[in-house]
Amino acid sequence: MSPKEIRSYRTQAIVLGHFEFGEADRILTLLSYQRGKIKAIAKGVRKIRSHKAGHLEPFTNVNLFIAKGRNLDIITQAETVNPHMGLREDLERMAFASYVVEALDRFTYEEGQNVALFRLLEETLTRLEQQSNLTTVVHYYEVRLLDLLGFRPQLFDCIDCGEDILPQDQFFSPLVGGVVCPKCGGARAEAIPVEKDVLRYFRHLQRSNWGQIRDVIIPDHIEKKLGHLVESYLTYLLERKLNSPEFLREIRDQKRNQTQQ
User: Fold this and answer.
1) Which of 155, 159, 199, 194 is nearest to 176 (CA)?
2) Is 75 helix (H, G, I), strand (E, B) or coil?
3) Rounded to two decimals, what is the model's pTM?
4) How many whole angstroms from its chain centre is CA 214?
5) What angle do CA 66, 71, 72 make, to 5 degrees?
6) What is the per-residue pLDDT across 176-185, written as a single tens digit (0 to 9) for each?
7) N or C: which end of the chain has fewer CB within 10 A?
8) Residue 189: strand, helix, or coil
9) Cα distances (angstroms) measured from residue 207 to each of 100, 212, 216
């Protein structure tokens, strides 16, 4: 490395995940404000005396000092900005946060700065700590994430014939990324039936800002179908299922059973 090359840098980042490496190290996946998604190693972080361990837990927003390494950059200092402790103290909130982080991780690569993604993730983790309508928080996040990634679904006109979508049951095609009217939907084997009330909430989420949506409570029977619709679209785009939705369903089913007892 020449003297003119940058040997270290500072960045603010959110910890997306990690895996153990060697006897005491940990490799972290980070979404940084300044550099986008990066991977870095925290040496000795699993030792009892490590001062960095508490700052590098999943969902933590942290200021980092990082040294350039040959294969992996090395985290030398870490200072917590927002620990998002409320997510780790509540299993359902943690499950939602895990889903949010996994979706972003699966869709993104180490391709440079994306401030809008960083802000969306930090805002969503904060909302998951503070709000009671968690499904609204997550569905709003999904819609904004799809927008930022260039996969915004078309919800107001039939994606095949271009006609306005009327207030009646429709179809949704993950293949073409949008709503298909009843007339065109029958010709698409992959199209998923969508009830008009489910589509109404989906459209409201897409065209509203957070201030307009923050107090909305999506009815359970609508939310379940909306969740299935969005999950089908994400699965098509990723060409594989996410892991966290199944865990999230288990947690929510357990909570419902406890409430009913």
Assistant:
1) 159
2) strand
3) 0.93
4) 17
5) 30
6) 999 999 999 9
7) C
8) coil
9) 20, 10, 14
